[in-house]
Structure formats: C-alpha cells, structure tokens
C-alpha cells in the first residue's frame, strides 16, 4: 500500500468534507486527521460544527462495499445484545460511511514507524479489568442466537462449512503461491484431525486486533469497531490475534475467563486456535489475491516462506 503524498491527503480531506456536506454533516475541514493504516478503508477523524467528533470511512475497493453492507446488518444485531458500544452509522453510501466517535480509545494502534502496535497501556501489565471485560464481551457476542442473527441478514457457516472454507482457501492459495512442504503438511494435519474442530458455530467479530478494541481509563473494554468481516462461523476465530500477541499462557488464561463468563469451549480449543495462527499466512495470501496489489502479494510470499509457529 503506497503512502499518499501531502497533496493527495489534502485532496482526500476536501473530498470527504464535500461528501459529508452532501449528506448533511458539516465538518470543520481543519479538524480532519487521516489514518491510512486500514487495508479496506481510508479513515479520517474529524469534528463537526457542533463539536461532535466523527469517524469517516471510505472503501478502498469495490469488494469492500459488499462487506460494508454485511457490516451494517451485523451492527443492527449486535447493538441489541452487547454490553459495550458499537458504531452507529449515520451516513451509509458507497463513497462515505460516517458515525460518531465512540467514547474511549483503542487499547493499541498500529505503529507507523515500527509496524507493530503502540499500546495505550503497557502490554505486559494490562489489568484484570481488561481481560475480564474482554472475555465477558466475547462470551456475550458468541452467545447471540444464530437464528436471530441469520434473520437479521448476518452471514452464517455451519461447523462443517467453516472447516471446508478453511480448506478451500488453502487450496486456492496453493495455486498462486509456493507453500513450503512442512507448512502444507501441518495445515493438512489440522484440517483432517476431527478432535481439533468444534461442533458449534458462534457469532464472531472476525477481525479482533487491538485497534478495534476500545477501552476506558480503567482498561475496561467499552466498545468494538470495524465489523466488516463479522459472521457466524468458527468460534476460535476471535482468539487468533490474541494468541499471536499473548502466546499460549495468555490464551489459556483468557479462555478460563471466557468460560467463566459463559463462553463455550471444547477440549482442544487452544490447540485449534494455535493451528489457526499457523494457517494465518493463507488468510493474508487470500487477501492479496483479492486486492491484486503487488505489495500485498509480496507480503504474503514472505510470510509463507518464513512462517514458523511453535507447537505446544
């Protein structure tokens, strides 16, 4: 993803201000700050003439709009159930999505300098309030009635369909990328071993990395944003990035809190999540094929060539 020039940023600001104006939102252009870290949306933070802060999102590609339509349906369902805030879209067009900024701040943001995360609080000393509220939020989300969600238009996969989707994705990327034999064999063992896999599906956020988790000053989770990928599918999905950040010990602790909060687990849940992380390059490669951008293709090739997830 090429970094825009200063002139491109200024043009983007003017365009967003104009689009907001056309939809009845009067933004103070000088207040606008652009965030280019998202793969699917260009994002701006801005303030209106009454002092209300807003998030403005513009899809980067046509395929993103389709997922945005799914996100709108998801938000209508989850806002009725979750103990935390979710975005309330006030503008929804192919060129602009806008909603008032949620209270709180992300637990971490993408560090433009280092490529990792810049944490609001030190990662190694996050409080029980954070972990307990995250576990409770996930348990509530995952326990939303799938029948109600499907009636609301949310995409849904059975456990078998979710497993088949993983397998189909892996086969697809093998046609376009070189996958090391050792990694391919590990994926095959995971896909064909029944005991790894759950017998139930859950309502998942599906993109739960730190910038999408909003917390207050006490580190309590108060909101979740960016629901573009959400669907009813494999219940391990919302723990994969967490495993990458907090490793096996951290995940084991969170799963205990999750189960205590009412989340449903199974004997090999932790191992299944670990193997999903081992298959993460396949997801990146699939995204690269969708975008057809060489920078994403190169990132996927690099991950596939060097990926090494420690076994338990």
From TrEMBL:
CDD domains assigned to the protein according to its UniProt record, in alphabetical order: MPH2 (cd05152)
User: Mind telling me which InterPro entries this protein's record contains?
Assistant: AGP_Transferase, Aminoglycoside_PTrfase, Kinase-like_dom_sf
- Gene3D superfamilies, sorted: 3.90.1200.10, Phosphorylase Kinase, domain 1 (3.30.200.20)
Q: Where is the Aminoglycoside phosphotransferase domain?
A: 33-271
Question: Which residue windows are coiled coil?
Answer: none
Q: Which SUPFAM superfamilies match?
A: Protein kinase-like (PK-like) (SSF56112)
PANTHER family this protein is in?
AMINOGLYCOSIDE PHOSPHOTRANSFERASE DOMAIN-CONTAINING PROTEIN, AMINOGLYCOSIDE PHOSPHOTRANSFERASE-RELATED-RELATED
Protein name as annotated: Aminoglycoside phosphotransferase domain-containing protein
């Amino acid at each position: 993803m090429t970094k825009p020039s200063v002139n491109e940023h200024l043009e983007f600001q003017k365009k967003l201000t104009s689009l907001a104006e056309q939809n009845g939102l009067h933004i103070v252009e000088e207040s606008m700050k652009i965030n280019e870290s998202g793969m699917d949306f260009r994002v701006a933070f801005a303030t209106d003439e009454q002092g209300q802060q807003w998030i403005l999102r513009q899809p980067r590609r046509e395929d993103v709009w389709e997922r945005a339509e799914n996100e709108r349906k998801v938000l209508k369902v989850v806002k009725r159930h979750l103990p935390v805030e979710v975005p309330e879209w006030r503008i929804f067009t192919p060129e602009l999505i806008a909603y008032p900024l949620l209270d709180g701040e992300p637990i971490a943001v993408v560090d433009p300098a280092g490529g990792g995360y810049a944490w609001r609080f030190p990662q190694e000393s996050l409080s029980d309030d954070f972990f307990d509220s995250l576990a409770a939020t996930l348990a509530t989300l995952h326990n939303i009635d799938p029948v109600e969600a499907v009636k609301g238009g949310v995409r849904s996969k059975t456990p078998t369909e979710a497993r088949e989707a993983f397998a189909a994705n892996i086969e697809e990327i093998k046609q376009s990328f070189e996958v090391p034999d050792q990694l391919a064999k590990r994926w095959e063992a995971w896909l064909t071993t029944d005991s790894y896999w759950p017998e139930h599906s859950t309502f998942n956020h599906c993109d739960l990395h730190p910038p999408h988790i909003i917390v207050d000053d006490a580190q309590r989770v108060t909101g979740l944003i960016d629901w573009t990928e959400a669907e009813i599918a494999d219940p391990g999905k919302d723990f994969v990035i967490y495993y990458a950040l907090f490793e096996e010990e951290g995940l084991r602790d969170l799963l205990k809190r999750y189960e205590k909060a009412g989340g449903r687990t199974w004997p090999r849940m932790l191992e299944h999540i670990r193997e999903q992380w081992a298959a993460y390059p396949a997801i990146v490669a699939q995204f690269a094929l969708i975008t057809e951008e060489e920078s994403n293709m190169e990132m996927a090739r690099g991950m596939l060539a060097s990926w090494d997830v420690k076994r338990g």
